[in-house]
Amino acid sequence: MNIIGISIIEDNHFLRAGWLAALQAVSDFVVLGSHATCEEAFRSPDIGESDVALMDIGLPGMSGIEGVKYLSEHYPNIATIICTVYDDDQKIFEALCAGAVGYLLKKIEAPDLTKAIREAAGGGSPMTPNIARKVIATFHKIPAKCNNAPTQLTPGESEVLTLLAQGKSYAAIAEEAHLSIDGVRARIRKIYEKLHVHTRGEAVAKGLSQRLIQPPF
What we know:
Number of domains: 2
Shape: globular
Largest sheet: 5 strands, parallel
CATH architecture of the largest domain: 3-Layer(aba) Sandwich
CATH class of the largest domain: Alpha Beta
Number of helices: 10
Distance between the termini: 32 Å
CATH topology of the largest domain: Rossmann fold
Radius of gyration: 17 Å
Order of helices and strands: EHEHEHEHEHHHHHH
Helix content: 40-55%
Strand order of the largest sheet: 2-1-3-4-5
């Protein structure tokens, strides 16, 4: 059984306590830290050991979007899930560009939260349906802020980027694209180089905004 290390960053004490209790009850989860601010979380020696960070957008001090960017730059192996009450296209788009891999509404039930964390840890991109619709609507309405010039991808690269946008894990991409796991990683590295990005979220954002791939919904 693979243990998933989780850091919670949420300023609402009651919600944070509820998440902590729910996640501690899952046998393959270990909550490494439960923090009210990004500043507090990033001072913790355990933050770098996390596989998944569950983060609010509207935090005091450093915002959740700034926090996602910090984690993407300093701990690129951490999969950050934004969990929000905001129904704001712009905030979601900015978080995606910053490197978040998942978008959930705070009313999510504990079993769905557990599933989303496992999905993110496995390379997927969990999104509640309402957030997913908002994300796609944002790409339709807002000019890309992560984008300058159009990019050309090979058919194989376009296929892998499309599968990334669908939230597929590396293993699922390898099976569907008839590649080895190392082959998937190599193709993703090439996509990142061409798009001048560093995260799955940024790659998908550019791919959709430049019309290199079609929306997955």
